[in-house]
Design a protein that fits this description.
This protein is an alpha/beta fold and 205 residues long. The protein has a single domain, classed as Uracil-DNA glycosylase-like domain (Uracil-DNA Glycosylase, subunit E). The protein is 46% helix and 13% strand. It is built from ten helices and six strands, in the order ααββααβαβααββααα. A six-stranded mixed sheet has the order 1-3-2-4-6-5, with helices on both faces. Helix 1 runs antiparallel to helix 5. The chain starts with a helix and ends in a 16-residue tail after the last helix. The structure holds uracil. Uracil binds next to helix 4.
């Protein structure tokens, strides 16, 4: 069994958050390629995900699938997970203590998968990687640290509730291939960290 599969087994057995463990049908560790270049991080499983044990399989997931195909990728080629691995009762927002407790699993997933790009979907995952920022200001922007690109997007569910966001989310998604390509080019040509064209003016501090 791979280290990532073992980690998923540990997540499935996790009972660190009593309320979540008692109310879930099953934990939802994540799904996708173990060597994915791109890792999408959502908020927490909803009803469909809790039933199936897979991330983003409800209506928001259908839109995420569309977004992933729009950049010429198959869902199986990326890795999809959430900040919190268990569905909060009644789909309430995850609590700070749950996010903190679950962070350990996400950190280990990142260590094992080593994605070249982390795409945050919505406010909760954005808050982890773009602390103090506002999604309406920074969606569609990226920064690079330790050779990983961090890219913030609205949550796909936001576009289902607010149709006008659909095009915004799609436009942001379509930036991903060139961000990855640009990082490659700069990496090859420039040993020192360098401001990338698409990253200009988007300092992360
Ligand atoms: N919303 C999320 O944030 N994650 C899922 O897995 C499904 C819906």
């Amino acid at each position: 069994m791979s280290a990532l599969s073992e980690l998923c087994q540990e997540i499935l057995a996790c009972r660190r958050c009593q309320v979540l463990a008692e109310n879930r049908t099953r934990a939802v560790p994540g799904q996708g390629a173990e060597d994915a270049d791109i890792m999408f991080i959502g908020e927490a499983p909803g009803w469909h995900e809790d039933q199936q044990g897979l991330p983003f399989v409800g209506p928001a997931g259908m839109f995420l699938n569309e977004l992933i195909s729009a950049i010429g990728l198959k869902r199986e080629a990326v890795y999809i997970t959430n900040v919190v691995k268990c569905r909060p009762p009644q789909n309430r927002d995850p609590l700070p203590t749950e996010i903190h407790t679950c962070r350990h699993w996400l950190d280990r997933q990142i260590e094992l998968i080593k994605p070249r790009m982390i795409v945050t979907l919505g406010r909760y995952s954005m808050a982890m990687f773009f602390p103090g920022k506002s999604i309406s200001k920074i969606h569609g922007t990226a920064y690079k640290q330790d050779n990983v690109i961090y890219f913030a997007m609205y949550h796909p569910a936001a576009a289902l509730h607010q149709q006008s966001l659909r095009q915004v989310v799609m436009a942001d998604m379509l930036k991903i291939p060139s961000l990855l390509a640009e990082v490659d080019t700069v990496g090859d040509l420039e040993p020192e960290p360098k401001q990338l064209k698409m990253f200009e003016g988007q300092s992360h501090d």
